[in-house]
Amino acid sequence: MTAAARSLRLGSREYPVVLPTLRDPRLHLATVIISIHVLGQVALGFHVSITQILAAIGTCAVIEVGWTLRTTGRLVWPASAMLTGSGVALIFRVLGTEHGDWWATRGWHLFAIVAGGSLLSKYVIRWRGSHVFNPSNLGLVVAFILLGSSRVEPLDFWWAPLGPGMVLAYAIIVVGGVLITRRLRLLEMGAAFWVTLAAATGVLATSGHCFTARWAFEPVCGGHFWWVVVTSPEVLVFLFFMITDPKTAPAGRVARVAFGAAIAVLATVLIAPFPTEFGAKVALLGALVVMTAVRPLFDLVFPARGTAEDDLKAWLRALLPEPRRGLAAGLMGGVTAVLLVGAAIVVAGAPARQPAGALDAPPPPEGGVEIDAAALPEVTVDPEVAELSADFAGPGAQALAEALYANLQTEAQALLAGDKELLAAADAHSRLVQMETMIDEAAAAGQAVVPTYDFDTLHLVRAFPYGEQGGARPGLEARGTQTDVAYDAAGNEVGRTTEPCAYVFALGEAGEGRWLILSAVPLEA
Fold first, then answer.
1. Contacts for 230 with CB less than 8 Å, ≥ 6 apart
2. From start to end of 339-378, where are the E strands?
3. Do the beta carbons of residue 253 and residue 306 sit within 8 Å?
4. What is the pLDDT of residues 50-66, one digit of tens each?
5. Phi and psi for 308 in degrees, rounded to 5?
6. What are phi and psi of 505, to 5 degrees?
7. Global model pTM greater than 0.90
8. 494 contact partners, CB below 8 Å, separation of at least 6
9. In 3D, which of 294, 287, 256 has the Cα closest to residue 270?
10. Pick from 9, 183, 284, 371: most CB atoms within 10 A?
């Protein structure tokens, strides 16, 4: 859907310039995607910079203009390529990029490589004159698998609390998606995908499936997991703008509906084993890669487009058993098929069942430790924490501060006494290992060094002691002074040093109202 608008003379040669028409659906799709990008920057807190977005789009545009110029001798507006680049930039994230770093260049080369590789796959991997895979989908899956969750991740399932920004995002995605897919006669395929995904993930959720996510302080399980997936704006983007690529979908109407449903079933089976959101999101994208690879089979098995047999209503009626004969056999066959699919989903999901409860820890020391709550600094709460949980606003944040101070005092007692069991009443995970190592070193040296802290400020943030895909935990960013007091084997003080300090102490729940220190990450004081 292009029209020659003008010519451009370069040296002695004149090149036709071809621009898209206003009726081109690629322009309408670009409007939707760019609108989401803008919302992400101004209202939804997307962790992607404008530089990264431009690197992806610009790389694809340059490649396609050069490829087309060489093969056709024309300068053609790279509408499809820019869609590939903007699609990659919408889904792809480089860890460490923060919202508000508008012109950050962190990982820009990865955006360029992934987007460029995605586009090139369209020219290299072809079948009967057409590309096999959705370019951005293939490039993203390959990138996530090769680079891993320690460097990159897909866009989150959950974007932000429901508010004006999210309402507008849903409206843009759904209205724009419905209009575009309806025009391309792909709306039925998208609907089949969503309905089947809702049913299949419902089975998975009922089995107790969970995953951890960087936007949740607790594992996302059961009904919450199901609701997050079926209402996810990322899933809607995948539905409307990725699986409904006309070039990589079957031709027939019946085949398209079956194709959409098959993607949903496979996606759920692939999601089931993964206990992290990263795994679930890559599994969702990977399902489309697998299904587009076998897409020609759908054209072989189902009626050809435009034939009398390519009647969706007639096909659906044919699936139902005849009322007078074959009713029992038909129902039995249908129930058997559903049970087999459900069983496959449940079995595949065994590694990601409902997790254990709170951390195990011995009781606190007898008599406890005394905390002067009135003397503690007032805890400020990061907006991202406030979005995720109302529990940590006000008194909840101060309760975390009291727990931190109590644990630090218990640590000091354990270090001075060389008591590892007492340490376990205050610490877990990497902090416990760190403190146990200090006890071992003190025993070997005959001298214990016991840190004490005096914090001037406490700021509640998200912390990731198990890595970003291990889920968020409440973390107190503490700044003040640290005094290291040295004691000899008899318990006599032999020296002390004081210097500024800054840490993020990650906390994990060990029963109602009780918290342990999971890690302490030093910051610049």
1. 194, 197, 198, 201
2. none
3. no
4. 999 999 999 999 999 99
5. -65, -30
6. -95, 115
7. no
8. 447, 486, 487, 488
9. 287
10. 284
